[in-house]
Design brief:
Layout: E1 2-9, E2 15-18, E3 25-33, E4 36-43, E5 52-59, E6 65-71, H1 87-93, E7 97-99, H2 120-128, E8 133-136, E9 144-146, E10 151-152, H3 154-169, E11 173-177, H4 195-212, E12 220-223, H5 230-235, H6 243-262, E13 272-275, H7 281-287, E14 308-314, H8 318-321, H9 355-368, E15 376-381, H10 394-409
Amino acid sequence: GGTQTLSVQSPEKPTLTITEGADFLTLAEASVEGDVYNYDVTLAANQGEKSRSASIRVVPGTSRKDVAISQAVQPIDVPTGEMTHSAKELAALMYAGINIGNTMECPTDEGAWSGYKVNEEYIKGLKAAGFNAVRIPCAWDSYITDKTSYEIDAKWLNRVARVVSWCIQNGMYVVLNSHWDNGWLEDNIFDASKKDAINAEQKAIWTQIANKFKDYDEHLLFAACNEPGMNETSSKGKKWTDAEAVARVVEYEQTMIDAVRATGGNNASRTIIVQGLGADISNTCNYMDNANETDVATFPTDKVPDRLMVEVHFYEPYQFCLMDKDENWGNMYYYWGKDNKLAGSNRNTPDASAEAWVDAQMAKMKAKFVDKGIPVILGEYAATFRTLGEGENQELHDKSVAYFDEYVTK
């Protein structure tokens, strides 16, 4: 992007028009020096993945000349540097994070769920708002061009690299994962027949991702998956007491770790994030890292010390955070927190499911992982703002949602 001067020598003032649709190009009259007319030609930065062109038609009287404009793709900046900090040290540096959701994890079409694609101005806005860490949920399976070799479209790899670079250029840490993407991995945890195919794809895609980013510095962290098995356990009634299902999650994460480390470069010591079972705190604490009670692997290992984190998500209690309609087994909660109760309402979150529950769940992760030197990242958490009906207290509900976010963040 930038501005250049276009000078036109003409016995009379010319008329200038831009190619229709070239909205990245603007013209402005600058000055006149005798029979020379000067114009400022300004191009916005090319944030796309391909070059673009336009033309300016100059018409002085009965003459005409077309001036060709071409603009190359903006080079992707590769933030190189040291890999000196441990996972624990990086966790202490990542103080406020946000997801770039409903964009790059949309299968096949970025922004299909939200109607927008990520641009540099948006990233700068996140930084200005006070965030210093960004989680990029990302689709990969949908961008595979060859299902035999699992080759990822090079254009998509470049697009992701551009967004990652914008974040790091703005001083933020990046968590790049392999997200849901039609559930190719995370919705098939309990299906043993798909294990070999999932392992093969997991190894192939993370080898390509890691090679693409092997020179990036420690501001980039890789996350193995998203919520492995969450849909199967919550909607199909399956339980993590199936030790073989737990082992498959661990195996898929181990495959990713080994693939990343094998690419060398900065990946030899990059911090890697593994997900708990369904990214759920209780299941993760109850069934992962339980080697004394079962003869199958229950937590992945890394040959590089102190470079692993564990990720969980927090939408608890479901009746307050995500539930969108009453069910025969229970109703939605509208109000949360000891000071946010509506007298006589059956929509108050029980005390045991409010602040005390948050404290207890965080304490579980601290005892299970943090106290053993493995940091924990809360990759997602939220509560839904609802529009309440007559007889309910909208202001108290909105206050409850804001308080939930504040309390969990602290």
